[in-house]
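#struct-help
A.M.: can someone run this one for me? Single chain, 247 residues.
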Amino acid sequence: MMRAIFPRRRIRLVVARAATAFEQTFRDTLVDAAIVDVGSPATAGDETSRVANLAREFPSVPFIGWLSLRASEGPTLAQCVTWDFSNVLIDGVDDAVARDIVSRESFTARFASALHDPPGSLALSSPLQRMTWQYVVGRAGLGVRTDSLAKMLRVTREHLSRTFAANGGPNLKRVIDLVRLLAAAELAKNPGYDVRDVAKVLGFASPSHLSTTSQRIVGTKSASLSRLRAVDLLDRFSRGHGRSRRH
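D.P.: on it. Structure tokens below:
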């Protein structure tokens, strides 16, 4: 059913049949949303509780329950509230809109929405700069190659880099790293993640690579990211970390 609603060509779907595999997925890849079959006998009891309690360990990720609309499942529906689930999908009722509901609540969608307009401190005002910014934040902290970005915008990489940094604007590669650190700071606030986990799910080569990037872009070690707000990181970036010596 999940594979029918979330086709492989559009969305990567990971199916976990046990709580241990479910939790491990959070440490292997960036999870946009977690759907828990709370009504299945196969996930009843301790397994369901173990999975559901992860909603408090990973509050940046929406946990969504999936169950049938039967009177006997009323207590389970109420339990989803106790577990801090963000929503519940009803089998046979919400099938047609399930993908839209999950996509709208996903980590990527909320991250991109919150940063849709580039902060004024970055001075990104031209159409090309704004389109570039919106594409980068739409990746929610995952790596973006400048050549792929240029191809999408139908310009050369050299033109994109030069135009993006025009009129005192920040260096494009540094902005890409800034967005990755904004995502890293958000994920680092989750009790279930440590710095090593954050580095892995966002595609950094190692925790030390994340820390080096953090020091270069916002002047602080990665261990401090969980204590900093997005506005703090943007302020640090604007105070001298936006441009490299050569760009």
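A.M.: thanks! The beta strands are 34-37, 63-67, 87-90.
D.P.: also worth noting: DSSP finds 14 helices and three strands in the chain.
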